[in-house]
Structures
1.
Amino acid sequence: MQEWRRLFNAPQLPFLFVQLPNCGVEQNCWPTLRNEQMDGLLLDNTAMIITLGLGEDNDLHPLNKHQIANELVAARMAMVKYRNGYANGPVATKAFIADGSIVVRFNLFDANKLVLKVGTFELDNRTEVIKLGSFFARRNVLKIALSKSITIHHGASIRYAWDNTPSIFIINDLGKPAAPFELPISKFENMDQIFSELY
């Protein structure tokens, strides 16, 4: 994107891109590619369309291009407000340990809160991958419970929708799916302070 901006001598040239949808006909590489696509949001004047749930699982190119086109048009309008990067669904920004749980913060953009369904996260704890299925959310903060038998190792990460055709169980109150993520788990932050900021 930066090369195109230099080529056209337009440092704020807007870029909109579509994150890979669910697709089960290739080897299991889509999660990593989706995560790499999110790096585009680190650049100003960019927007990403999250398309999980719009694919057919057996074809990389969704048939429902009309909805994706509408999402792109709406995202272009939203970029005026969110010049530091915009996505049409929740984007996880940070994960850390607090209050015996893994806490994940999200950027909600124009939405008001996260909406959760039943599902499981993956804790890559360096020596093993552990499924975690007890969680709740307040506005843009997600709290995933940890059993007392789990010790988080240095370099551990938390994953959501980490599959070619993942189960979608995080959306926002506008019905838009959250982007898949793999985030390193950082050191403790004060949980009471985090939740007090929400009210």
Note: The mean pLDDT is 91.
2.
Amino acid sequence: MSTITKIQSYHRDIKQLRVAAYCRVSTDNVEQLESLENQREHYQKYISNQPNWQLAKIYYDEGISGIQLTKRDALKKLLTDCHNHRIDLVITKSISRLSRNTTDCLRIVRELQQLNIPIIFEKEHINTGAMASELFLSILSSIAQDESHSTAGNLRWSIRQRFASGEFRVSSAPYGYSVEDGNLVIDSVEAGVV
């Protein structure tokens, strides 16, 4: 038997892992949606280039905060599919994409470990299937949670400062108005409805 035939036979005997990717962006602005599309393209290529991986599905939540699980339908669907034995491995960009809440992150990791489904966090180079301890994951997850709180605090401060200085910035005008030169102007057509 030739070496190539042995290699091909070996690869046929190895179980194909059904790999799912999870992506999330926290806002639905154009840059974030492009990031989401880039993540999806990355995982389609990345998974298809692994010799014993097959793409199960790419799950994604757009415009959803990573602090709470309640509105993250794609993540909930991913977990359901894991419980229904449709997935063997989960891969995501970073801990903060999975969750910005330490308790939720650890709960998800433990839940999937009980199902023998590891999670790979690319940015942190963590494979939960090879972890000796949750300590490192806990620390990084706490950092992601604190970063989220800090970002939210910075945004609130920035908004208060703009209000105090009389600045007004809006990405989209409320119904009945349009934005011209950075100012809200009454839209005569929509104003009639209001």
Note: The radius of gyration is 22 Å.
3.
Amino acid sequence: MEAELTALAASGATTFVGLMATEAWTQVRGRVARFLARGEDTEAVDAELEESRAELTAARADSDEETAADIEAEWRTRLRRALRANPEAADQLRDLLEELAPHQPTGATVSINHNTINGGTYNSPVIMAQSIHGGSAPLTPRQEPGAR
């Protein structure tokens, strides 16, 4: 049972922190705060969640994955303790995670740390992307006259 509660706490923390970084957070924050408060001061928990979100946003903007992982670990520990103290909350957490599933981001995310363009003359905007879909022919760079 302990391993199951630990896995559930990890899933909850991953979901909560993942949602903090999305537009959906404003829609789900209240439900998460009510669950975590467990009848206590919901406003205090809500403030803690918002503080975590601000830290997470700053960490991701700075490409600081260690701090982002620490934030998730804090919520995982908190959830694990809550589930140990009240094992009946496990069913409520499962229900909440199921309810939040449609709000979770899908697909892979890509982080761009730094882009640099050196040399050459560009007479139009330069677009840098991992991949660009659409069109019928691949884009090829235009070469200056006399270039090889």
Note: The chain is about 55% helix and 0% strand.
4.
Amino acid sequence: MRRDGALSVRQEAILRLIRSWITEHGEGPTIRQIGARVGLSSTSSVAYQLGQLEERGLISRTGRGWNSCRMGGP
């Protein structure tokens, strides 16, 4: 997260991907699917970015896995 509170380019790309993936597939993408599409090979890097987005209330999960991800907070 940047100091000015704005999303990073990568976080914006992840949000766009999640939004379009949910529209197309009815559920969120997996960590590996996100990484492959935004250029992150490390699943822990993807999980970190998702955690940052979740902390900001931009996404939420209904289960343990990130593919249960939804846009917006709880």
Note: The chain has a mean pLDDT of 87.
